[in-house]
């Protein structure tokens, strides 16, 4: 399939925008996947998803590197979460085709609305200046949350970054900024786990994916710096905005 110059321009701009948004709070796939399918209507859905994963994992990894270097979350914990995320996301991707998305969407919409209400009515959540609490049941709770969210990312995906930020913030009683850095590392692993399944199935359009990955990295670096400059307050507002946008988006897909 040959792409015209105009198609390349639209996809590259879209990939950069998706990278910026994804680094900020997550949800870049809501932009890039529909854009790929709109610009290239003849492309099989599996190829669109796989090509988006290649771009997404590149941008997410670059944002994770920038945030971790500045925020410095616990490295030992992250290794455990990454291993769990790789395994569970791959498992989710392997069974994605057998699950009914029409059943999942209403559940995810209700969960997102609940998250939005909680954050809106508890302004102190995620704004603590402490290093957070570690050890005991919190370690196992975080591992369980990573496993569930990673499996969900392999199956369906929208809101993965947001759910990880909420889980880390709630379990460890830490601020949004540290949780965002941890979430980006784990989200990189979930993307890798799902991408490995897509690669094994031969679904990735490599030339398009690598090109979009470059644009996605540029956007992700801008997004990571936006997060660092804006701090926890910006992440809180972005999270609330994402809840609204994604709830509307999934509702249109479900009932539109």
TrEMBL record:
Q: What is its main location?
A: membrane
Q: Does the keyword Signal apply?
A: no
Q: Which Pfam families match?
A: TauE (PF01925)
Answer yes or no on keyword Transmembrane helix: yes
Q: Which organism is it from?
A: Corynebacterium flavescens
> Can you tell me which family this protein belongs to?
Belongs to the 4-toluene sulfonate uptake permease (TSUP) (TC 2.A.102) family.
Topology versus the membrane: Multi-pass membrane protein
Q: Which domain of life is it from?
A: Bacteria
Q: Which GO terms describe its cellular component?
A: plasma membrane
Report what the protein is called: Probable membrane transporter protein
Q: Where are the transmembrane segments?
A: 12-40, 46-66, 78-97, 103-121, 142-172, 192-222, 234-252
Sorted alphabetically, which keywords does the UniProt record give?
Cell membrane, Membrane, Transmembrane, Transmembrane helix, Transport
Which InterPro entries does its entry note? Answer: TM_pro_TauE-like, TSUP
Subcellular location(s) of the protein? Cell membrane
């Amino acid at each position: 399939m040959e792409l015209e110059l105009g198609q390349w321009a639209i996809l590259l701009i879209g990939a950069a925008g998706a990278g910026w948004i994804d680094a900020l709070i997550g949800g870049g796939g809501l932009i890039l996947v529909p854009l790929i399918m709109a610009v290239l209507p003849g492309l099989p859905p599996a190829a669109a998803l796989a090509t988006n994963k290649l771009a997404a994992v590149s941008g997410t990894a670059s944002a994770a590197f920038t945030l971790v270097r500045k925020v410095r979350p616990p490295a030992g914990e992250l290794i455990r979460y990454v291993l769990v995320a790789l395994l569970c996301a791959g498992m989710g991707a392997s069974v994605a085709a057998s699950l009914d998305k029409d059943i999942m969407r209403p559940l995810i919409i209700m969960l997102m609305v609940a998250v939005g209400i909680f954050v809106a009515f508890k302004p102190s959540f995620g704004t603590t200046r402490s290093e957070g609490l570690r050890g005991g049941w919190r370690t196992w709770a975080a591992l369980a949350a990573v496993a569930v969210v990673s499996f969900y990312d392999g199956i369906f995906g929208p809101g993965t970054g947001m759910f990880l930020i909420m889980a880390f913030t709630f379990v460890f009683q830490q601020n949004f900024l540290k949780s965002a850095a941890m979430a980006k590392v784990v989200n990189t692993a979930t993307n890798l786990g799902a991408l490995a399944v897509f690669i094994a199935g031969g679904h990735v359009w490599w030339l398009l994916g690598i090109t979009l990955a470059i644009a996605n990295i540029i956007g992700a670096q801008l997004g990571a710096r936006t997060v660092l400059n804006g701090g926890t307050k910006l992440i809180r507002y972005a999270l609330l905005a994402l809840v609204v946008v994604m709830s509307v988006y999934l509702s249109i897909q479900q009932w539109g």
